[in-house]
Design brief:
Blueprint (H helix, E strand, L loop, with lengths): L7 E3 L2 E3 L3 E3 L8 H8 L5 E8 H5 L3 H6 L10 E5 L3 H15 L3 E6 L4 H4 L11 H15 L6 E6 L9 H10 L4 E5 L13 H10 L4 E4 L5 H11 L3 E4 L9 H8 L11 H19 L1 H16 L6 H7 L5 H8 L55
Parallel strand pairs: 3-4, 3-10, 4-5, 5-6, 6-7, 7-8, 8-9, 9-10
Antiparallel strand pairs: 1-2
Helix pairs in contact: 1-11, 4-6, 6-7, 7-8, 9-10, 11-12, 11-14
Bound molecules: flavin mononucleotide.
Flavin mononucleotide binds next to strand 4.
Amino acid sequence: MTVVPDSLTLGSLRVDTPVVLAPMAGITNAAYRRLCAEQGAGLYVSEMITSRGLVEGDEVTRKMLTFDDLETVRSVQLYGTDPVYIGKAVEILCAEHGVAHVDLNFGCPVPKVTRKGGGGALPWKRGLLAEVLEHAVAAATPYDVPVTMKTRKGLDDDHLTYLDAGRIAQESGVAAIALHGRTVQQAYSGEADWDAIAALVDHVDIPVLGNGDIWEAADAVRMVEQTGAAGVVVGRGCLGRPWLFRDLAAAFHGEDVATLPVLGEVKAMMRRHAELLSEHMGEERGCKEFRKHITWYLKGFPAGGELRHQLALVDSLASLDALLAGLDDAAPFPERELGTPRGRQGAPRKKVVLPDGWLDDTDGRGAHLREDVDETTGG
Ligand SMILES: Cc1cc2nc3c(=O)[nH]c(=O)nc-3n(C[C@H](O)[C@H](O)[C@H](O)COP(=O)(O)O)c2cc1C
């Protein structure tokens, strides 16, 4: 059986626990990364930012490039389709923002993105993928910053790309490849295919990070045991449960910890999350940002409909405190929620939206794809 690793090496970067917080648009901002990092060691990746936005000095992109004071390892996910923009953006991240890890997004399933050949659509064009990766690695190498890529299995079951992507990543000097075991067509539906992760591990020599459907720390260990992955990437499982990173760190160091906070402890975590968002964004915006997390934190706990409704309208820390006071501190953690999906799920897409003629050739080297500045949907 595979030996479960207790750390992760990405080029020059050593991570004390082989656990990566999945980049999630609208979620993994500086406040959330700090909140998770307070729980345990790992690599905490930013929301996706666009290479064009960065290169052209777009204001929204610049604001997204915020780091917490205690964030010692700055890890950024970059989106792009143009090798030159990507190279320039990586250079800016390393030279001007002290970034220690860059991840490239080749997994986004959002039609607005795949329609332009970006995200999960791009690996179909093997030549273009190589160009993008080579430019990124060339820009990062003088700074000794590892570049990783994150992708899906392929467009759909008839157009798989992940094994080629792994080979190309390895040939391009990429430090690791993360695989979400779904196709673009599946979006977030169905179950992640961990066998594909195992197949990629067999196919390449660089570290493979397994992603998809890790809901508990035990799932992460099981994934590594089943697939031989060098580490795991955890997304939806930690929504409303930053303490999952404590359990994950323990699990990869041989301890079986399942944190089951009572509602009073969850309230304290909610308060901390809203406070950190307020520090980074100002109180009103921070509290509004916090709204989307409330359902996740309270999932399965007793809280009346009216209280939940009021919480969804929260716009200050004082109103949050007043509303949280109405919840029973002693309510036990709803154990029936353990191991169950949270966050986005939904249905598969009828078809993957692609640029005209996209499937006609698999190279795409030199292609000029439109890259928008404001592409922030992630996925
Ligand atoms: C709200 C949300 C936003 C996401 N944004 C991004 C993103 O910006 N970049 C990316 O590579 N993946 C993004 N993803 C995908 C996750 O990183 C991850 O691959 C996916 O959720 C599967 O992992 P999980 O089963 O642990 O959630 C997003 C997922 C969610 C739920």
